[in-house]
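Issue 218. Parser rejects a valid record. Input:
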Amino acid sequence: MTVTLDYLLGLGDDALIAAQRLGEWAAVAPEMEEDIALANIALDQLGAARLLLSYAGELEGAGRDEDALAYLRDDREYRNCLLVELPNVDFAVTMAKLLFLSAYQAALYAALAGSADERLAAIAGKARKESAYHLDHSSLWTVRLGDGTDESHRRMQAAVDEVWPYTHDLFAPDPGAPVDPAGLRAAFLSTVESVLASATLDRPADAWSPTGGRTGVHTEHLSYLLAEMQVLHRAHPGARW
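Output the parser choked on:
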């Protein structure tokens, strides 16, 4: 199957917005070591976003490069999943988001590494290795908090409960996807449920499940995030450092 522009934008936007949210922890993480760890994960996501958005720009053929796609689109033009645009709230919410995202991306990139599209396969092969580290890091923190004190357990469970409904958007049907999103759910659940069990946390029941990110229907949080992310580029169009 030929890779579509919207599909590449979805992958690239997931990584770009995840990087922006993780970058918000710079200098305010619970530990100095965590500042560095989250910054490195953000850079991994940003690196994947650059590769994917560059490819998307070339496929589009309208003269838009990675910077134009990142900084000159409005919220309705973004194709990221809802999960990555949610605000951090606290450290537990960030770890829950990272756990769910990395479990999804690990399964996704493993599948895409075998894509007939050689360029996408190469990008996925690199990102797959990074996702394994992201998953390990978020898993360790989820267990540390979930199986820690009464307070850390309460906050980690609350974070999982809050974020869980937004994971369903990851597996929404996409006729243009070279990998069926629904087919990734079993691997995702196997990974996540194992981590939650080790963390003495309950997996929330499947109920309310907002979707729409892939078609440009987002939460209000994305607009605020883009305003901060894009302000310098839009204020000085064409500027060069």
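Fixed in the parser; the record now loads. DSSP finds nine helices and no strands in the chain.
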